[in-house]
Amino acid sequence: MSLFQNTVKRIQEAAQLMDLDKDVERILSVPERIVEVNFPVKMDSGELRVFQGFRVQHNSARGPFKGGIRYHTQVDMDEVKALSTWMTLKCAVVNIPLGGGKGGVMVDPKELSPKELEALTRAYTRAIAPLIGPEIDVPAPDVYTNAQIMGWMVDEYSKVRGMRVPGVVTGKALDNGGSQGRDEATSQGGVYVLREMLKDYGLNKPGLTVVVQGFGNAGSHVARMLAEDGFEIIGVSDSKGGLYCKKGLHPTEALICKTHTGSVGECFTAGDTCERITNEQLLELECDILVLSALENQITEKNAAKVKAKIILELANGPVSLEADGILKKNGVLVIPDILANAGGVTVSYFELLQNLAHETWTAEEVAKKLEPVMVAAWKDVDSTAKQYKSTLREAAYITAMKRLSDAIKLRQGL
Ligand code: GLU
């Protein structure tokens, strides 16, 4: 089954549990609009390459489409459809008035020069310009896209429109209409939810051990935040390799080392308490909390039974497959699902949009003060729904979101 088919299956399963209106289920099972664009880019060598990109607008019942743009060789229409569906559900879980969308370009950005990356971003922006805008569809960073890329998007879109439109994307740099706290928002939101869960489930004790898969934006921030809160980070990995330190590691040092060596897997010296491990080994380490902050389908039916963590925090989108869900449930592994765990990112994107539209700039304290109650409320809603339906947290997050979406869809469609 494809990623999107899996996502629809999860919608159907939750729909059955909550006895969702069939018309609403049908509407949520397909995107409102899917777009493929093919655009030429002149490479530094003078060669012309045609790149393939996508934008999927899944659902706008609760507000403008919202969701990131990813640059990756694995991007395809099916993946973007699944990711856009999760955005719709995610925005509804945290109860912000936005819908779901997602975009992507099939490219390995690490192979491009900065000039080529800029040209590609501008060409993609022109190609999707008729579909986006602050009231229509608002992109943001995702895998291998960042504030600089958002800056080029704003600039190109503003040229197309003939006016300055900072609210066309979020995740911009601070000096370019960005919001305080956006960079670390995904991790911060996940930390708030994890903290509430540990408290409510009576699992909180000092020195809980943590393994983090993916040491990019979300992974490196979450490792630092959890270490500051007294958790012990014992393993981290990136796309090139992993590091296991049985006596704990220092996330900031690991990040500095990764910047120098290119991978956290290189960050050990012979004879110390750390060793190099593979990504597969990392996922199977004995630990209290496994944070997944890389790509989708990392825990599947192949390795789910080998997971020794007690809790999985999904900071990535879709890191646990549908089949793996069942195995983890049977083994008593608690999964804090992506559409709740990583919703802090889009929540601060929403704050950024509000600041842009109101010509305001909020302080870091103001952003944090607004993010925390949103995440805590979302956790409480999902947790109480899980208790009511005797369901997993993932099923409960889907039910929570789909109830809100159902109300909006019914009011709009007159169902
Ligand atoms: N790409 C992030 C996500 O998957 C953020 C999306 C946004 O801020 O719009 O949630």
Radius of gyration: 21 Å
Structural class by SSE content: alpha/beta
Total count of strands: 12
Major sheet characteristics: 7 strands, mixed
Strand order of the largest sheet: 9-8-7-6-10-11-12
Residue windows where pLDDT falls under 50 for at least 5 positions: none
Number of helices in the DSSP assignment:
14
| Global mean pLDDT | 96
Strand content: 15-25%
End-to-end Cα distance:
31 Å
Characterize the quaternary organization of these chains: single chain
Task: Report what the structure shows.
The chain is globular, with a radius of gyration of 21 Å. It has 14 helices and 12 strands. Helix 6 crosses helix 13. The relative contact order is 0.14. With 415 residues, it is of the alpha/beta class. The strands form 2 sheets. It has a 7-stranded mixed beta sheet, with helices on both faces. It has a 5-stranded mixed beta sheet with strand order 1-2-4-3-5. The site of glutamic acid (GLU) has 12 residues, from strand 3 and helix 12. Glutamic acid binds next to strand 3 and helix 12.
